[in-house]
Amino acid sequence: MELVFLGTGSNNPTPHRGASSLALRQNGLVYLFDCGEGTQIQLMKSNLKFGRITKIFITHLHGDHLFGLSGLLCSLSSGMTKNQHENDGTETESQDVAPSVILYGPLGLRKYVETTLSLSSSKLVFKYDIYELIPNPDDGIILSQDDTDVLFKDSQTKTVSAEFISDPSHEKGGYYQYHLSTDDNCNVYAVSIKHRLPTYGFIIIENNLPGKFDIQKLQKEHGLKPGPFCSKLKAGEQVTLESGLVLKPEEFVGPSRTGRKIVILGDCSNAMNIIPLAMNCDILVHEATHDDTLKEKAIEFGHSTPSMAADVAEKCNAKCLLLNHFSQRYRPVKQEGKLDSTNAKKAKNEDTEDDITTDLLLSQAKQCYPSRPVFIAEDFFTYTLQLPK
Ligand SMILES: [Zn+2]
Ligand SMILES: [Zn+2]
Asked: Which GO CC annotations does the UniProt entry carry (predicted)?
């Protein structure tokens, strides 16, 4: 399992930091989280393959998380056309085939995708599904008549509603969660977090993994060499060998291992809703748009600072905290090449001569979360999650 940060800037892309996008690679497939402008270019610069993207999750509809989506879908489509031509000279367009890509995101995502594709006369050769998350009572959003008409009268529209999970430890007696998918050996959930638009955090929980197979014990106790019977033992089956020897799986296979848990949040000034589901996660990806001296400004615009991210990490006992979504005023530490003052100003998009790096954000977060690893995730930062022991 690998997390690849494709774009880690807030608001707008610059030559040194792309707009929001993050990829989770597992079992050869790629789940993409957000798709800001320029995500295609970042994908090309990474070692990820377009064709491996099967699911795209959009945290919210602000442009810096969304404006690359239609272009990416078109490129996926042209890539597929080419492949199909190479394979059999035909293009298929069937209603019965499983969708190649499934998108999940806030209400309005379908309208955005369909409008941009139709206005630009773009036709995708593959089937895609869009699942929109219906606001839950905690979001404080009242659906318009238009929304209600589209959602509940059009049978083609796919939606996901939140379910209320009782939790006495929660200040409201429980919380709302969306169960989005169960494919690819993991479950994906979403929970609302506080920003200026309906915004979600995603929780990916891997299914439990089988226990470790002790091949050495098998060799030591019975003098056996590895063979086809090993896979049966690994799968929990009892095996009787030709010699009559009976091998029980519990003797050679350890207890099942808890799957990994990854939490990826969109922009937020308060993500406390995520805590119950995010508890003991392996990774928490949390935004840190501004540093702690600008906390008031951060909250005013629905954003967070390093100490706020650390607070969430502490409350859910995250094993590792990765910060992203930096204001362009914070220069990447390992910025390649030298900026002249004009370009530096452009890159920072601020009328300021300050030269502040993301080291400031890192030190503030580490101070508040000293017990666990904390990283600044600049573009192309890659974090590998090892298999559980
Ligand atoms: Zn943003
Ligand atoms: Zn935003």
From this structure: nucleus
